[in-house]
Amino acid sequence: MTENTDSYEQNRTKFIQNALIDGKKQNIYIDESGIIRSVGTDIGKEFRSEAECIIDASGMVAIPGLVNTHTHAAMSLLRGYADDMHLQEWLSEKIWPLEAHLTGEDVYWGTKLASLEMIRSGTTSFNDMYFFMKDAARAVDESGIRATFCHGFIDFDSPEKRENEIAATKDLVSHIKSLQNPRLKAAVGPHAPYTVSREGLEWCAEFSETEDIMLHIHLSETEGEVEGCIEKHGMRPAAFLDSCGCLSEHTLAAHCCWLDDDECRLLGSRNVSVSHNPSSNMKLAVKRALPYQALKDAGVNITLGTDGCSSNNNLDMFEEMKFAALLQKFFWNSDTLLPADEAFSMATSNGAKALGVSTGTIQEGLPADIVLIDTATPSMVPMHNCVSNIVYSCSGGAVDTVICDGRILMSDKTIPGEAEILGKAQEIASQLVERANNPQ
Ligand SMILES: C[C@H]1O[C@@H](n2cnc3c(O)ncnc32)[C@H](O)[C@@H]1O
Ligand SMILES: [Zn+2]
């Protein structure tokens, strides 16, 4: 329950009282610039009387905002458009032909819808690869959450396409940097080793280095990709990317299902972060799960992502934590692999580290990205183990309040403007499919 009707405004000091953190009732004070100034069991009267907004979190668990490290947000418009297909056919026969008709307005509303869904389910940061990304950034700016944007760079070995992709990437990066909004970051996004030429990958690696930005790429999602890379380049995909300079501490590699042990060690030695996308991998039947133990042994920072809504089909990171823990146990036949606390770290602190954002924990001096989960819901009762309930039993529907950068984005499960976004996204998605089916 939030006292103060203007609580959605930023720049108001906030006092969250009686939130359960690490099993203890604690209070959190957030200053006017959205920073956690104090957190603990004994911070009290002085901060409470100073605060312009009191949030009573009695009966709620406070966790850091969740971090989704691999998605294509505007693909929310393609939810349910092409299901139950093989990955390469799904992409080349259904998704790419539809995406050829996308407009900036589609991406704007698709990203508004995705941001809404992420806020509802407790995500406050995401890593996005798609097209018309200036429009995506406008949508995210309005929604109040954090994101890193890259243009999906695909040149298919064509020098002309490569020049266009370089221009689109440079344009996006300079645009995002010019906004000087700490919630919005730019990245470079070579789509995958099978869609980008050696020259394109080398350019992306150098650009990421000189601009000091993340390099976001799909890697070894399918066995066919690995075979194709060996045939074309005489190397497995990770070695090929390394030869192009694409593996560094800037790199976030999504999927990584078909890495062998040497590749896991290579990623570890280059300080690459990996995004595990269990729902998408199961739905697209990629036939192998992330080699979690080998990556962990190699010291790789392992994070969690939903992938796009066309291969998931939602953006609920609670579901993703559970699927990650279950898929690892099932595929690698190990009941102790990927325990709940590791799934939780993947979705919070590991994700924040990969995206270079100073969130992911509730700690003094850090930006206030905080999610309150209602414990008065059947899937949170009893609470023998809070992290177990968060990972294995509850879902995004239990989220009551979301704060990002000190600003309340959802309170009492209410997000201002939600109905308009739902209506407009439905309309825009129908028009997109109509245009694709009846090209002029
Ligand atoms: C940015 C492009 O990436 C496409 N995409 C979405 N999901 C996947 C996936 O699982 N593997 C490869 N490529 C994917 C998206 O449709 C855009 O074309
Ligand atoms: Zn993807």
Feature tags:
single chain, 440 residues, alpha/beta, TIM Barrel, 2 domains, eight-stranded parallel beta sheet, binds the ligand C[C@H]1O[C@@H](n2cnc3c(O)ncnc32)[C@H](O)[C@@H]1O, binds zinc ion, hydrolase, zinc, 5'-deoxyadenosine deaminase activity, EC 3.5.4.31
Q: What does the secondary structure layout of this molecule look like, with pairings?
A:
Elements: E1 2-3, E2 14-21, E3 24-30, E4 36-40, H1 45-50, E5 53-56, E6 60-64, E7 66-71, H2 87-99, H3 104-120, E8 123-130, H4 133-143, E9 146-153, H5 159-179, E10 184-190, H6 198-211, E11 214-219, H7 223-233, H8 237-243, E12 251-255, H9 261-269, E13 273-276, H10 278-283, H11 292-297, E14 301-304, H12 317-331, H13 340-355, E15 370-374, H14 386-393, E16 399-404, E17 407-410, H15 418-437
Helix pairs in contact: 3-4, 3-15, 12-13, 12-14, 13-14
Zinc ion is lined by residues 70, 72, 218, 254, 307-308.
Keywords: Hydrolase, Metal-binding, Zinc
Domain Amidohydrolase-related: 62-408
Catalytic activity: adenosine + H2O + H(+) = inosine + NH4(+); S-adenosyl-L-homocysteine + H2O + H(+) = S-inosyl-L-homocysteine + NH4(+); 5'-deoxyadenosine + H2O + H(+) = 5'-deoxyinosine + NH4(+); S-methyl-5'-thioadenosine + H2O + H(+) = S-methyl-5'-thioinosine + NH4(+)
